[in-house]
């Protein structure tokens, strides 16, 4: 596996000229690239409220100002015309499953290296 960072140009008004936006993964078999996968956030902008309060009916309501956050969905997709065999498909499935488990552990426990509880 060969993993390379993917940078995108910063938006106007941002301090950073480039920002890390994901990574590209090449699956290699016997020294030859057999499949390339892109892993990154999309560019959709979501409005995030500053606070979540409780309304008079007991349900959550947005309170305070809002902040624009770029990147609504985390995306994984195959790039290129390479034919995917059953063995490569199994490796891709394992890669995607392991990546999602690592992300879930990070958000739940603060580290992707947390042992299963």
Provide the descriptors you would attach to this structure in a database record:
single chain, 6 strands, 117 residues, four-stranded antiparallel sheet
Description:
The protein is of the alpha+beta class. It has one helix at residues 86-109; strands at 2-9, 18-29, 32-41, 45-54, 60-70, 74-79. A four-stranded antiparallel β-sheet has the order 1-2-3-6, with no helix packed on it. Strands 4-5 form a two-stranded antiparallel ribbon. The model has no long low-confidence stretch (mean pLDDT 87). It has one domain.
Please provide a brief summary of the model:
With 117 residues, this protein is α+β, with helices and mostly antiparallel strands.
């Amino acid at each position: 596996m060969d993993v390379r960072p993917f940078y995108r140009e910063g938006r106007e008004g941002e301090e950073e000229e480039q920002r890390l936006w994901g990574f590209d993964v090449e699956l290699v078999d016997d020294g030859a690239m057999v499949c390339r996968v892109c892993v990154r956030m999309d560019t959709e902008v979501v409005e995030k409220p500053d606070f979540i309060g409780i309304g008079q009916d007991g349900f959550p309501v947005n309170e305070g100002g809002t902040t624009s956050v770029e990147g609504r969905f985390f995306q994984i997709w195959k790039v290129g015309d390479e034919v995917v065999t059953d063995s490569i498909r199994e490796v891709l499935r394992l890669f995607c499953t392991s990546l999602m488990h690592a992300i879930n552990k990070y958000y739940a426990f603060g580290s992707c290296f947390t042992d299963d509880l």
